[in-house]
Predict the 3D structure of the following.
Amino acid sequence: MLPRWRSEAGIYFSPRGAALRLAPRGLLPLARTARVTERRAAAPSAAGEPWRTPLAALGEAMRELPRRTSCRVVVSSAFARYALVPFSPALIDRKANEGLAAHVFRHVHGEPAESWTFRVAAAPVGRHRLACALDMALVEGIEAAARSARVTLAAIEPALGAGYNAARRRLPRTCWFAAVEPDKVSLGLLAAGAWTHLAGERYAGDWESALERMLAREALIAPAAPGSAAPPCWIARFGSQTDPAHPEIRAFGARRDSRPARLESSLEGKRATA
């Protein structure tokens, strides 16, 4: 197998700024030493979108990378909106499913959704699909930052989708799944390998206590099955000091049992938002 010559960077983009891990490629051992850097965002302004100030930190981080570095950007759920989109046999391609997702988001959020871009994950026939929306201006801003830094933007992924993609082979078929980030938890329920419920909450202080409260509350709203035992919870925790864009995957106070059906995702790609 030929060696990879293009350096790769995983970037976690959040209200706090941009944290990245660069994996350089080259023949010399020193050239192959990975490094982690962070660019903190300035204090946000009272007006405008909350991602504007962190976007400047992202641009600074990208400009310090070698040219043509392949960059994967994980966008915090603080900048994303999630929804479940019903299955429709009449929708046969990605664009049609994104149109349905746009309708769902506009029904919930109204006029602001007109300026969002949408992506929908693949799912088995008849199952709800996980969808995500990001501000189109944010996606365009990330793309512009990459062009300015002369790096290659390989993917833009929201944290919930990125966390699930990293964890899905280890998950029980029925379980709670949480993407845990500094200041926010995104929680979903998988029943027989399919998404059935979503919730999100900002928190201050202890994320474990915040997740426990969410699980207790959401289990009353959306039990996995009437009268069944409480399903386990698994987490993908972002913000590692050694690899910010790749989450820690583990069970949260639960036993590890069966594996899920393989759910292919279309959340990755330059303009991916779910």
